[in-house]
Write a structure and sequence with these properties.
Blueprint: E1 9-12, H1 13-18, H2 22-25, E2 32-36, E3 39-44, H3 47-69
Length: 82
């Protein structure tokens, strides 16, 4: 069975257990695949990459909401009467 690995770097789960800090640092800030029996079981990514991804997903969700609402009728509001 062929498994896709979506990173340039990969380490075994055994190596990660033995040296938990060394493995992620060896990837020079890139994502690293953690392998079990030659297949990825999870990806380890730097904190700033994770934060960027979460911000991007939130932006995509907001964009989807804006797209849904762009053809809705608008309501005129007088700010002085609020």
């Amino acid at each position: 069975m062929t498994t896709r690995i979506l990173t340039k770097a990969a380490v075994s789960i055994s190596e990660l257990k033995a040296k938990p800090i060394k493995a992620p640092l060896s990837a020079d800030g890139e994502a690293i695949a953690i392998l079990n029996r030659n297949g990825p079981i999870f990806y380890c990514i730097p904190a700033n990459t994770y934060e960027f991804m979460m911000d991007h997903m939130e932006d995509l969700e907001l964009l989807a909401i804006a797209e849904q609402r762009k053809n809705e009728a608008s309501i005129k509001v007088n700010l002085n009467k609020l």
